[in-house]
Amino acid sequence: MEPIQPQQRRVADQVFQQSLDQLEDILQEIETEEEEIPQLPQLHITNLSEVEVDQDLIAIDLAALEDAVADIEQYLEEKTKTQEKL
After folding, report:
1. Residue 59 belongs to what domain range?
2. Strand, helix or coil at 39?
3. Does 48 share its domain with 19?
4. pLDDT in tens for each of the 86 residues of the chain?
5. Which of 16, 23, 42, 76 is the least crowded, having the fewest Cβ atoms under 10 Å away?
């Protein structure tokens, strides 16, 4: 195995330094692009219980709606029976 000559070392060092410079330029471009991208607003949910409360309210509203529909159906049935008797 031959020892690496000083000139070959310098050339390898130059190539390595150029690669590092290119990498640094790329990283700076990425950093600049990230600064230019506007941040999306964060959802404001302080804890999971808020989501659970909202889901409970939806369930309650659905149950109330079902009860109302049942009441209306019962009313219409009674009204129809009453009109049929007349």
Report:
1. 44-86
2. coil
3. no
4. 466 688 888 888 899 999 989 989 888 888 887 776 666 566 555 555 666 666 666 767 778 888 899 999 999 998 888 877 76
5. 42
Residue in the structure block whose two tokens are 């009453």: 82
Contact 45, 51 (CB under 8 A): yes
The span from the CA of 29 to the CA of 36, in Å, is: 11
CA distances (Å), origin 20, targets 10, 30, 66? 15, 15, 68
Cβ neighbours, 10 Å, residue 60: 10
Residues 28 and 58 occupy one common structural domain: no
